[in-house]
Amino acid sequence: MAIERTLVLVKPDGVRRGLSGEIVARFEARGLKLRGARLTKISKAQAQKHYAEHKARPFFGELVEFITSGPVLALALEGESAILAVRTMMGATNPVNAAPGTIRGDFALLMGENIIHGSDSKESAKHELAIFFPDGLI
Description:
Elements: E1 3-10, H1 12-16, H2 20-30, E2 33-40, H3 44-50, H4 60-67, E3 72-80, H5 82-90, H6 103-107, E4 116-118, H7 122-132
Antiparallel strand pairs: 1-3, 1-4, 2-3
């Protein structure tokens, strides 16, 4: 296995509900290292760049509107197979299908407000980390 870096966003609903600390604690307890953290308000341009792969889909506008609706906590996490570890810990994209014990399974009910985003591949992680941490990581 390999050491990887990945992006996690605690979305506006997670920040608004005060879940950021719990989510960071879960990742750290799992053994992932925090290499960057930034509380930020995503601009429309950043959101469109972040969700560019979904531009032709009918829900693109809703994604952009939601992610720009309030502050997000952007995290750069590092560890052994970090991308898969984060994706597993997040749970299914649709929270009603997410297993108990996962972040979405424990904290979310709605597909459109599912608390968290995590990069789905090494390529996505590299692209997304550059959007949210353009000045680099520790």
